[in-house]
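Note on ligand handling. Small-molecule inputs were canonicalized before submission; formal charges were left as drawn, and no protonation-state enumeration was performed. Where a ligand contained multiple stereocentres, the stereochemistry in the source SMILES was retained. For adenosine-5'-triphosphate, this procedure yielded the string shown in the input block below.
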Amino acid sequence: MQKSDHHEQNLTSPRGLIHKVLRRTNSRRSPTAAEQDPSPVFPETSNTKFLKQKNVEGASKDPEKGSTHDNRIEDEKSDLLGYEVCSGKLTLDNKGRSVSGEQSGSGSSGNCFDARLTTEALVWGSNILKLEDIVSVSYNAGLRHFTVHACPLEKRSNGLSCFMKPRRIQKDLRFLSTAPHEAFRWVNGFADQQCYVNLLPHPMASSKKHSSELIPFDAMLDPYVKCRSPPKILVILNPRSGHGRSSKVFHGKVEPIFKLAGFKMEVIKTTHAGHAKSLVSTIDFSTCPDGIVCVGGDGIVNEVLNGLLCRDDQIEAGSLPIGIIPAGSDNSLVWTVLGVKDPISAALSIVRVNNISFVQFY
Ligand SMILES: Nc1ncnc2c1ncn2[C@@H]1O[C@H](COP(=O)(O)OP(=O)(O)OP(=O)(O)O)[C@@H](O)[C@H]1O
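Structure output:
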């Protein structure tokens, strides 16, 4: 939720405003999940096919050169998954809660995996979790484990999966690293990739048995985790939207994601038509410096934008990020502008820094 430094002059009409939103988001929008290659495994590009072919040929001619070709294929994989940030051994410690389809990949024994964090994904064994699906990471200072909270698209194993709508499910993946300082290194890697880190004290620090002798040496030395500060937002919810289902959508699906991502939020439910507009036209922006999230349909977004247009402080109003959680009966605006239809995907986009659902206009 970075604010833009640039500002255009006067915003004249809501229509002009929405055009600006469209222009900006279309030019900046990263491809949505649907637009990207859905394959969780490395897609075989013509380039990789070529490399593999060469590798096979090379291997048959000169077996010793095989490893060089392997490296070249590895390079291709690195490109597709971004640049490596952190790597090492991780044990998946999800008793009975493992991700469906998880297998012990190469280099793994049992639940212990060769893992790496890249600028695009967390990879362990043959599993890939995209960073854009990660909500946050919880970490107790001085311990060996950390938990990755994510909402990946569900892998359906039955043959009818292609006819079913993709669905996101909440996963808490608890990883155990080899040592406390290793856990710290992984957590910092996530923080570097703009994942929110929910940094908790060492459990003994809050227990009654607390004494300086009980706190492990590592915990005392645990250096500062570079986590970003929790965003402060205002949520404006139209409880009538979506035939009265918007509150359930927000409290059931979206609020837990925002809480996991450390959001400090005030939720205001509109009581009548025009409420959102009058609220936004007078609100003190210091109470929601990181933006306003509209929960509902097109009508509530329209009211919020109109409320901003009524203000005298147009520059501040124009640079405030506006998020949209589709919970109305139609939601054509958010779908047209941002290519997002379901509330969980919209919430995930909002909690990521390089989000697409947080509309910025100026
Ligand atoms: N508490 C409320 N009671 C009645 N109407 C409201 C209330 N809050 C907002 N409204 C009005 O309801 C209108 C419709 O709201 P909204 O677009 O959010 O829902 P929707 O009609 O379900 O969604 P869509 O526009 O996607 O069909 C808005 O224009 C707004 O002025």
